[in-house]
Amino acid sequence: MLLKPIKDEKAYDKALDRVDELMELNPKLGTSQSDELEVLAMLVEKYEEQEWTIFEPDPIEAIKVRMEQMHLKQKDLIPYIGNKSKVSEVLNRKVGLSLSMITNIAAGLHLPLESLIQLPKKNIA
After folding, report:
1. Which residue in 44, 54, 71, 89 is a FRET match for 15, CA 20 to 30 A apart?
2. How far apart are CA 114 and CA 54, in angstroms?
């Protein structure tokens, strides 16, 4: 098989079919079939990364998702963020998260610190 970059779904499906065929053969390492399988797997992986990248939500989106999961209202965030107006400002991206807010939210809402310390996305309006 002539190996080429995968640029569309048709080529992707064809490559997956070939990967399945080669997997069934279970080629020994160092053979042309095992080399083909390895290269095809890399091409498939690269295509998947480009086409179906899943991005982590920004900190505010992560908080909102967790609030929805836990059936929380804005007032439920007061112990972690501060007063009612501060909660509103944070959720509307008018004020950034402080270090103490991040640690409180991470502990209280069981969110990974990494999801709260990303740079927030700018509100495009």
Report:
1. 54
2. 16
Contacts of 1 (CB under 8 A, 6+ apart): 18, 36
Domain for residue 46, yes or no? yes
Does residue 98 fall inside a structural domain? yes
Residue 1 belongs to some domain of the structure:
no
Instruction: Name the residue range of residue 24's domain.
Output: 9-51
- DSSP result, 21-38: HHHHH-PPTTSHHHHHHH
Would 15 be classed as within a structural domain? yes
Per run of 10 residues, the mean pLDDT along the chain (length 125 residues) is 87 94 94 94 93 82 95 97 96 94 96 81 50
Provide the whole-model pTM. Answer: 0.54
Count of Cβ atoms closer than 10 Å to residue 20 Cβ: 10
The CA distances from residue 88 to 68, 93, 105, 108, in Å, are 16, 8, 15, 18
Number of structural domains the chain divides into: 2
Q: What is the pLDDT of residue 55?
A: 72
Contacts of 112 (CB under 8 A, 6+ apart): 106
Does 71 lie in the same domain as 35? no
